[in-house]
């Protein structure tokens, strides 16, 4: 596996929990890589066939971690330098893994929803809860304030999405 951002806070884990954390971090590494995330095919090997995703306010229409990878690949075409800077909190209990992470990037790629690249930089935090079954991501629940990021990037017109 490739290099990962630093973990700031964690707890002692069993070897199974450590393996589950590694699967989740690998999913996130690929999903957040502007060069490696080509959509669902990039992460399919890490997900169960019946996997589910929940983040209706930030990724409407995404129902699986594969859908999320597709949607996130589109975002990264606009934020071509997007990357996770740190895993702020990481812990696992049995098959569940929690990540709170920090990320940053700038609108230096393609236009986003008709907004030409602004060059604006943004920093944000998000949290994700995963369930890992048999070494693969079964569920992914994401909590994130995308408006905070969008405002920094210049993707808002007043309180409206651009």
Write structural notes for this entry.
The relative contact order is 0.19. It contains four helices and eight strands, in the order E-H-H-E-H-E-E-E-E-H-E-E. 27% of the residues lie in helices and 37% in strands. Strands 1-3-4-5-6-2 form a six-stranded mixed sheet. The chain has 162 residues and is an alpha/beta fold. The mean pLDDT is 92.
Short description:
The chain has helices spanning 15-31, 40-43, 65-78, 146-153, and strands spanning 7-10, 47-54, 83-93, 96-106, 121-133, 136-144, 156-157, 160-161. It has 162 residues and is α/β, with parallel strands linked by helices.
Number of strands: 8
Report low-confidence residues grouped into runs of 5 or more: none
Structural class: alpha/beta
What is the 3D form? Answer: globular
Q: Measure the end-to-end span.
A: 37 Å
- Main sheet specs: 6 strands, mixed
Number of helices: 4
Helical coverage, percent range? 25-40%
Q: What proportion of the residues form beta strands (DSSP E)?
A: 35-45%
What is the helix/strand order?
EHHEHEEEEHEE
CA radius of gyration: 15 Å
Q: Write down the overall mean pLDDT.
A: 92
Labels describing this entry:
single chain, 162 residues, two-stranded antiparallel sheet, six-stranded mixed beta sheet, globular, 27% helix, 8 strands, alpha/beta
What are the SSEs and their pairings?
Elements: E1 7-10, H1 15-31, H2 40-43, E2 47-54, H3 65-78, E3 83-93, E4 96-106, E5 121-133, E6 136-144, H4 146-153, E7 156-157, E8 160-161
Parallel strand pairs: 1-3, 2-6
Antiparallel strand pairs: 3-4, 4-5, 5-6, 7-8
């Amino acid at each position: 596996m490739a290099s990962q951002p630093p973990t700031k806070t964690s707890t002692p884990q069993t070897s199974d929990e450590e393996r589950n954390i590694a699967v989740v971090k690998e999913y996130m590494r690929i999903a957040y890589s502007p060069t490696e995330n080509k959509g669902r095919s990039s992460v399919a090997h890490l997900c169960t066939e019946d996997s589910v995703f929940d983040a209706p306010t930030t990724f409407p229409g995404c129902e699986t971690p594969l859908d999320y990878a597709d949607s996130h690949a589109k975002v990264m075409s606009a934020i071509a330098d997007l990357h996770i800077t740190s895993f702020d909190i990481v812990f696992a209990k049995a098959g569940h893994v929690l990540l709170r992470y920090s990320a940053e990037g700038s609108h230096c790629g393609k236009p986003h929803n008709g907004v030409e690249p602004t060059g604006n930089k943004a920093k944000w935090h998000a949290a994700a809860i995963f369930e890992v079954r048999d070494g693969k991501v079964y569920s992914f629940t994401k909590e994130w304030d995308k408006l905070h990021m969008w405002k920094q990037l210049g993707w808002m017109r007043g309180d409206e999405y651009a």
